[in-house]
Amino acid sequence: MGLGLERVAKRFGQVTAVEALDLDVATGELFTLLGPSGCGKTTALRVVAGIYPADAGRVLLDGADITRTPMHRRGMAMVFQTYVLFPHLSVFDNVAFGLRSRRVGRREIRERVAAALALVRLEGLAERYPSQLSGGQQQRVALARALVVRPALLLLDEPLSNLDARLRDEMRAEIRALQRRLRITTVLVTHDIQEAFALSDRIGVMRAGRLEQVGSPAEIYRRPANRFVAHFVGPVTELRLRGVETVDGRARATLEGGLTAWVDARTARPDGLLLLRPEAVRLHVPEGAAENRYSARIEDVVYLGAETECRVVVGGTLVVAKLPSIAAAGLRQGDEVAIGWDPADAVVTHAV
Amino acid sequence: MLSSRMRSEPWRAAPFLLPLLALLAAWFVWPLAQALTNSLHPNTPQGIDAGQWTLANYARIADPLYAGVVVRTLRISALVTAISSLLVYPVALATTRLGPRREALAILAYVSPWLVNTLVKALGWNLLLRPTGLVNAALGEIGAGPLRLMLNETGVVIALIPGHFMFVLLPVWAALKGLDPALGWAAGTLGASRAGVFWRVLFPLTLPALIAGLAINFIMNTTAFAIPMLLGGLRNETASMLAYRVNLVMLDWPFGGAVAVVLLVFTLLLVWGGQRIATLAVPGPRA
Hints:
The complex is a heterodimer.
Chain A: E1 3-12, E2 15-25, E3 30-34, H1 41-49, E4 56-61, E5 64-65, E6 76-79, H2 91-101, H3 106-119, H4 135-147, E7 153-157, H5 165-182, E8 186-190, H6 193-199, E9 202-207, E10 210-215, H7 217-222, H8 227-233, E11 237-247, E12 250-255, E13 260-263, E14 273-276, E15 282-283, E16 292-303, E17 307-314, E18 317-324, H9 325-328, E19 336-341, E20 346-349
Parallel strand pairs in A: 3-8, 3-9, 6-7, 7-8
Antiparallel strand pairs in A: 1-2, 1-4, 4-5, 9-10, 11-12, 11-14, 12-13, 14-20, 15-19, 16-17, 16-19, 17-18
Helix pairs in contact in A: 2-3, 2-4, 3-4
Chain B: H1 4-8, H2 14-39, E1 43-44, E2 47-48, H3 56-61, H4 64-96, H5 100-115, H6 118-129, H7 134-141, H8 153-164, H9 166-178, H10 181-189, H11 194-223, H12 226-232, H13 239-249, H14 253-281
Antiparallel strand pairs in B: 1-2
């Protein structure tokens, strides 16, 4: 149930925008397509909406094949990056647009539009026109216009990227609260990692028209399927593996530069890359407190406000560590420190 | 290239306007003023009697002989404008969907009648529409006709439609091109059919352009000369033919001046009215 894509493809001339995309979005779930610009996420969303016809594959909504259903009969609603309010209609008429398409009665329209405007806290602005609203207000109208039709599927195309930072955080919290409350099956498209993490039940990371990984935000961040996903969702230090041996049923890897490190046996591969998130690397590790412990020299200390980035050299390799600034006081370039990490906090992937 | 000082103090730009203003004054305002003063003097066998003032020339236009010409002009012009208004959206919408190369060619094709000398155009229409012309020959092949397609108002209407279609097409096409394609997607995903998208979104948003285009088209129709002359014939006289006949054949400049002034005032009223309606038709908040 919910939304299903089966081997969906979309080409523009010679360019394949979406290639054999498989997807399942559960009813009530907020699913995010995350990826850099040009990865095909917006195209995929438009195929779901029926704006672009699929060149191959099937689109299913609650089990029914809607691949050939025109967009106006799909019962969805979409919020666009640029809002795309109807400039010739008042806020009321913008929100009422989808209800009039559905031939809802006059009285019910009045009630539902008022309720939708209350939902996005825009009561009293019904008579205004889009040009008389701020960006944030326009965004709310776009949201109300989509929610008021009680869509079978809500599509959000980069809904927050045209707002300034403060407003973005506010609207993010609001969209999250609304979606949790109304439990509308939602597909969000974004290139903003924070937005994806904050809003999503699950995330699909896309690159060049394909899904690289699907998982919960924590899975995507902590257990990236490959280098691309690892780098896209956050900074990471790569350490090349030279071999893996099994010691007492556990995996121990030899790293570039001769260090050895305990690694997660499930992902260990002799020619892989060990990926380390900066916050997984700890400094001042007492002897015996971590399975992987090395002495290192501090190359640089970068103060970033709440956090401090510490670049350290271990066995000729640069490793980036990030720690709360409170814990970083007193660190100086050239200091010798003991660093370490928990094998469960690192992941080994293919080198390519 | 306007400097910011010219923007804040527009009179600084005045010297640059002088050449154009001088040209307009010498070749437009001055003759027009002449026509206006002439129209207020009586014509006598000895010439214009500048000593006397009269409105008789204007009263003469109300004569059924001349009023009929004005009514015919308005009838032909309105019919051409009405038919153009029905054709413009299908053509404009189809044009925007052609892709950039073919779209440019299509627009060139629609503008091309304006690039051809009107007399040549009229001759071309003559070859098509005359009793032994191409159209009637084709009709004869299928056992229909012949139809009387020229030396009547039908011929004038047929020839004026393509001749002046670009004045409606260009503004509407440009307005459609200027709309965010996502407007159609937003309306479509909200349940509007293709017809719904057109009538509820595209049409109201391009209505000011349509009205402006129709006003220009109508004015062009009322002032057309060669096409009505050569396809309508002298028995279907229109206002510009009348102005020509009175001024250059009858040499009755006072009456000719009155005809010219009435035509001009009428045209100005139309431009002003068209702009007014177009302004009112602009959707959105009222100031």
